[in-house]
Amino acid sequence: MMFFPTSVASEYSAHHCWSLIHVLEGVLVIRAKDCVLLAPPGYAAVIPAGTVFQSQLSVGSKISSVQLEVSPGKISVAHGHVVKLSSLGIELIASLASMSQTAKTSERFKLLTELTIDEVERQPLARLHLPIPLDPILAQTCLEMILGFSSSGGTGSSEPKSRPTRAWVKAFKSETSLSYSAWRRQAGLVMSVPRIVAGHSIGQVAMEQGYRSISAFSASFRKLVGVPPSLIFRAPTN
Question: Phi, psi at residue 220, to the nearest 5°?
Answer without folding.
Answer: -65, -40
